[in-house]
Amino acid sequence: MTPETAPEPPPEALRARYAARLRAEMEELLRASSDTAASRRPVELDQQAVGRLSRMDAMQGQAMAAAGETRRQRQITATRAALARLDGEDFGCCSSCGAFIGLARLDLDPRVQRCIGCAGGGRR
Fold first, then answer.
1. Beta carbons of 39 and 62 less than 8 angstroms apart
2. Cβ atoms of 83 and 22 closer than 8 Å
3. Which residues pair with 100 in a beta bridge?
C-alpha cells in the first residue's frame, strides 16, 4: 500500500499523534524568541568602549539574530495555524487539492499544508 492509497486516519487519531508535538514545538519557539531578545537590540554607538570593527561585529551579530527571529516568527505562525487546523476537521488535508497529505510527510513536519504533489508544483 503506497502513501497515496493508504486510508486517511480519523481526525481524533491525527490529534492524538501530533497535538503534543506541536504544542512542545510552540513552547520551544516562544522560549527561544524570548531568550534571544537581548541579542536583537540595536547596537549602541560608544566610540570609547567599542572600536569600529568590534561595533561592526556586534551589528552583524544583531542582524543575524534578527534574521533568526524572522525565521522563528514564521515557524510560530505556521505552528499556530497547524494547531488551529488540528482542532478542526481539515488537518492533514492538502490546502490545494484536498487530498490527504500522508503520515510520512506529516511525521516529518506536521505544519505542512500541501501534499507532495502540490508542494512540488502540481499534481501528476
1. yes
2. yes
3. 93
Q: Is residue 6 part of a domain?
A: no
Compute CA 32 distance to the chain's CA centroid, rounded to the nearest angstrom: 13
Cα gap 119→94, rounded to integer Å: 9
pTM, two decimals, is 0.70
pLDDT in tens, the chain (124 residues): 444 555 677 778 888 889 999 999 999 999 998 888 777 677 666 655 555 667 777 778 888 888 988 999 999 999 999 999 998 888 889 999 989 998 999 999 999 999 999 988 644 4
Three-class DSSP category at 43: coil
Q: Are residues 97 and 84 in the same domain?
A: no
Q: Helix H segments across the chain?
A: 11-35, 52-87, 103-108, 116-119
Residues 17 and 46 in one domain: yes
Is 117 found in the same domain as 79?
A: no
Left, alpha or beta for 13 (phi > 0: left; psi -120 to 50: alpha)?
A: alpha
Domain containing residue 42: 11-88
